[in-house]
Amino acid sequence: MLDGRRVIPLAYRGQSRFHTSAVANIAALIGTALDKPGTRILNIADPVALSVAEIGASISRHLGYEGTILPVDVGDEKGNAAVGSTPWSVPAEFTLDTTAATALGYTPATTYEDAVARTCDWLVAQSGKDWKAQFPGLTRYSREFFDYATEDSFLTSAGY
């Protein structure tokens, strides 16, 4: 969106579900656990596990993006997709059960949509900087997230 892409394809038809965890929610669970010491395993995730298409829609709304988010039927069972891949694009649902955290007294501090708005504002402020220097962890993925030449070829062949 910040690169001005008119069409943004999403692998797996944008239906991938990879449960996000806002920092505010992680902190809220830590606070709850500190108030109730003990030995246990607790999962933490945002209240709703959005699909990649829903994540894209949230970001689009916040940024006022007027392009097209295009669900495409690409991606294999191993998580490989030539176009439309995101860090959250997975071939099978990946969600967390937060029942134990809720039973302990945890309540979410934020929703994904509210948390992502602050993140988007920060990302806009970083625009123009080398993303690989800003996010070295993303460079360890085996796929290229901004392969616009391959994406443009795909979109042209699909009539976009």
Topology:
Elements: E1 7-10, H1 23-35, H2 52-63, E2 68-71, H3 99-104, H4 112-126, H5 131-134, H6 148-157
Parallel strand pairs: 1-2
Key attributes of the depicted protein:
160 residues, two-stranded parallel sheet, 5% strand, single chain, mainly alpha, 6 helices
Number of helices: 6
Fraction of residues in β-strands: 5-15%
Mean pLDDT rating? 91
The shape is globular
Distance between the termini: 16 Å
Biggest sheet character: 2 strands, parallel
Helix content: 25-40%
The poorly predicted ranges are none
The structure class reads mainly alpha
Arrangement of strands in the largest sheet: 1-2
The count of DSSP E runs of length 2 or more, i.e. the number of strands, is 2
Which radius of gyration do the C-alpha atoms yield?
A: 18 Å
Helix and strand sequence: EHHEHHHH
Would you give an account of this structure?
- With 160 residues, the protein is mainly alpha-helical.
- It is built from 6 helices and 2 strands.
- A two-stranded parallel ribbon has the order 1-2.
- The radius of gyration is 18 Å and the shape is globular.
- It starts with 6 loop residues before the first strand and ends with a helix.
